[in-house]
Design brief:
The chain has four helices and no strands. With 140 residues, the chain is mostly helical. The radius of gyration is 17 Å and the shape is elongated. The mean pLDDT is 90.
Length: 140
C-alpha cells in the first residue's frame, strides 16, 4: 500500500533536506574546525565562519532540490535569511553556553548545535520559507 501523496512528498522533502543539511553541516563544521585550529579564532568566530561557508549550500540546495522553488524570489530569500539568522543565533547560543560558559570542548558545542538546529530549520523552511506561491485571487 502506497502512502498518500502528501506523505510521500513530505518524506522526500525531509530526506532531501537532510542530505543537503548534512552537506551544509559538514561544510560548517569542517570550516569552523579549520578556523579554530589553523587561524586560532575564538569559538564563536570560528563557528560564524563555518556558517558563512555553509549558508549558500543550504539555500541553493534546498531551493532547487528539496522544494523545487525559483531561487531568486526576493520574498523567499528574505524569509530564508531570517530563518538562517535564527538558526545561527540558536547555534551560536548553544556554542556560547556549552563551550564558553560550561567549559566543554568545542566539538561538544558543535554536536549540540547539530542536534537542535536542523529539525527546527526544516519545519520553518517547509511551512514558511519555501511555501508554495498562492495563485492570485480574482476580484468579484
Amino acid at each position: 500500500m502506497r502512502p498518500p501523496a502528501w506523505v510521500a512528498l513530505l518524506l522526500r522533502q525531509a530526506a532531501s533536506f537532510g542530505l543537503i543539511g548534512v552537506t551544509a553541516t559538514a561544510v560548517h563544521v569542517l570550516v569552523a574546525l579549520a578556523a579554530r585550529h589553523w587561524a586560532n579564532l575564538p569559538p564563536l568566530t570560528a563557528s560564524f565562519t563555518g556558517y558563512l561557508a555553509a549558508v549558500s549550500v543550504s539555500y541553493f540546495g534546498n531551493t532547487l532540490l528539496t522544494f523545487g522553488a525559483a531561487p531568486w524570489r526576493r520574498d523567499q530569500i528574505a524569509r530564508f535569511v531570517v530563518m538562517s539568522l535564527c538558526g545561527l543565533a540558536v547555534g551560536q547560543g548553544i556554542i556560547w553556553l556549552l563551550v564558553t560558559r560550561l567549559g566543554l570542548p568545542f566539538w561538544v558545542g558543535l554536536a549540540g548545535m547539530v542536534a537542535v538546529v536542523p529539525a527546527s530549520s526544516f519545519a520553518a523552511a517547509r511551512l514558511w520559507v519555501f511555501r508554495p506561491i498562492a495563485p492570485p485571487t480574482s476580484p468579484r
